[in-house]
Amino acid sequence: MNIWPAIWLSVQLASLTMLILLVIATPLAWWLTRTRNPVRPLIEALVALPLVLPPTVLGF
To answer: What is the pTM assigned to this prediction?
Structure first.
């Protein structure tokens, strides 16, 4: 049984996800710590939402 294609796909997916989130999350984290904006609590709630909701509620 050849498992290398599955391992390679997992590595590719993890790398792509990491790069996308790094590009999005780093500026967002900087903005959230440096500014006092009226939208800030909403953005913080949206960022924390995946941590509080179980995956079954999200449909995974």
So the answer is: 0.67
Rg (CA), the chain: 17
pLDDT digit string (tens) for 24-46? 999 999 999 998 889 999 999 99
The pair of structure tokens assigned to 22 is 């790094």
Residue 40: which residues within 8 A CB-CB, separation 6 or more?
Answer: 32
Total number of domains constituting the chain: 1
Containing structural domain, residue 13? 3-57
**Cα dist from 46 to 14, 42, 50, whole Å:** 22, 6, 8
